[in-house]
Amino acid sequence: MGQRRFSFTAGLAVAALSLSACGSGSGDAPKVAAKPSFDAGTTMAKIAAAGKLKVGTKFDQPGFGLKGLDGKLAGFDVEVAKIIAGAMGVTAENIEYVESPSKVREERIEKGDVDLVAATYTINDKRKKRVTFAGPYYIAGQQLMVKSDNTKIKGPADLKANPDQKVCSVTGSTPAEQIKPYLASDAQLVLFDVYDKCANALRTGQVQVVTTDNVILLGFVSKSDKAFKLVGQQFTKEPYGIGIKKGDVKFCEFINKTLKDNKAAYNKAWSDTAGKVEGASPAKLPVAAACA
Amino acid sequence: MSSANVLYDAPGPRARRRAWIGGASATLVILVLMGLVLKRLADQGQFSGKLWGPILNPSNEDFPLVWQLLAKGVLATLTAAVLAIAFSLIIGGVTGVARMMLGRRSRMPIVALIELLRGLPVVITIYFASRVLPEFGVNLTGMPGGAGLWFLVIGLTAYNSVIIAEIIRAGVASLPRGQREAALAIGLTPGASMRLVLLPQAVRVMLPALISQLVVILKDTSLAAVLGLYTELLRQGNLIALNLNNPIQILSVVAVIFILINYSLSRLATWVDQRSARKTQAKGIEGIPAEIG
Amino acid sequence: MDAITQNLDLFWSGFLRSLTICLWGAVGSLLLGTTIAACRVSPVAPLRTFGTAWVTVIRNCPLSVVLFGFAFGLPEIGINADYYVFGLSALIIYTSAFVCEALRSGINSVSAGQAEAARAIGLTFTQSLTQIVLPQAFRTSIPPVGSVIIAMFKNSAVVGAFGVGRDLYSLGESLTSAQGYAVLPVLTGVAFGYLMITLPAGVSLGVLERKVAIAR
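YS: structure for the whole thing
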């Protein structure tokens, strides 16, 4: 066990180092438009004129938005934000990141604290009432992660029959709500503030299952040196969107067009960050939904 | 009964031997338990250089970054605590004095407010401040230090100002009646006697209790980490652990830092208490809320 | 107000769970706190040192850090238990330090003559402590110990964030964050739940204080 534990942490450290190394590379930053022109009065025109973009993202989500020790943010959401910023002539240094944990994302947008939110932000009807979504720019799906030697759980359907198998997720998150119908009772669910704690609890045997979007789980699997595995099919669809102010259709259309026009940068952003982990599907920009 | 040794004789040879055996076995049990824990931790690789290096080894590339971040965290914790105690002092002072000066009927709303806020968990008042105030259009984004800091300070102030109001009331109540009577007798208005005679004396008696309350506030700032509101010491530690994957190690360091700061503050409170006791011969006030966090 | 009326059963079960945590916490921390206080006044030096170290370390550490140590430290050394047990134990251990100090102040307020008289009639340390000093100390300690326990009731809200769940606080998080209910009514409901625990506790404490008050 001692041996395995060591290699496990070594794997973690290597993964962490490589994750934090990629976001900071300035040499391959997404291209920045020289002098974009926009219709007067649009959000894009305002941002281009100011030369600054305020982006709400997570600071504690490895693979998507994680603040490194040097204070730099790294992750897929951050790279996507850079692509959008670039199309408005805003350089990576002029992006201001505002920490936006799940529960305040709508508020950040409504208050105007940020111009856009890219923070593993699942598009759903409830949220559409308060914000407009561009994208989706990625489609995740909820899945289960267990220890490699776990034979009891092969999919969400096995959870009800095994009430002793505790399931871990994040407080107030969509996955935590969506797993509830599959559980024998609420007592089977354990909640923490970040998924990292769930992975920790899985390793020490405090919980037996961790559930959230597949890409986040894959990050843990690849770091765990075969100690964890994913089981079962993705049982939900989680389209990640870019949250912007409600009703800003022009900005939404602009973001969708930008992502479509920058597929190469998009693919690179994916393969440099969350897509780097073993078992992640290759980058594929989904077809954007209509803006409203 | 100021010292416990009235409870037992200076032990004789037999009792000394018994105490020695008892003490030695108690020490042994504690040491064995600690040894077991350390061994389990070592078996799990928790003492590996990889996990501790960034914290203890100055030549590790992450060492300066980790300590810079921890220092930032300490500073953030102190900032929030100092702001919260300052605002609590002002608001608590006004409320406490108002409660004492107003008549029985007109102070009812203040008493109700104090009882209400005193009955709520701090984590709830902070949560309330951070989630409900924005709904009412309170926008603190532009404030220095960020909105999170101010929501934390507001939540802490709401809770602690009523505690401080009570400390002040108990402090004034601990003064001899004659002080107020004499002040009124020489023609001071009730307000002036409070301001010029009672409060200045009460503050000296209250000082240790106030410093103890600062310890409580310092500890409560870490609730911001639970709510993910503001990057103080604990949350800074959590973020470092996310990067280095060493939560046990970082959290031990965070705990030690908290204990060192708070222990020094507690010692300061004791020292101030003894000093003022020597100076004024005043005994500590009873009924002051004990230092509870 | 829909948020409350639609979820009345959830609020009720959350309230009951919080109340249970509070009651177990009170029993546990009173027992443990008394034991630690006895350690701190005992003739055995290592026990005194242990008691002092216990109080110094725990009193100066935020509850959230203690909780973290339980929830993530103990599994690391191979101790696995329900998070409910971890959370409750952390709450009890944290509160015990404060109960100990409140009791010790009570013991110190028993006049030396009482202990001397007990000793003079030949009672041993244990006898004079359990039959003479502690019964009086408990009475004077009721106000400070009571406020410690009420503070513990309030602190129990933090336990919800460490994997315990389904208490009032976690309920508030889940309803507002994931299910999208408006924050104000939900948090008002949660706050009301805690007030329903702390306010009656405060009132009973006041009654108890007047009942057992001793003129000295």
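YS: worth flagging: Residues 281-291 of chain B have pLDDT under 50 and may be disordered.
IM: good catch. Also The two ends of chain B are 27 Å apart (CA to CA).
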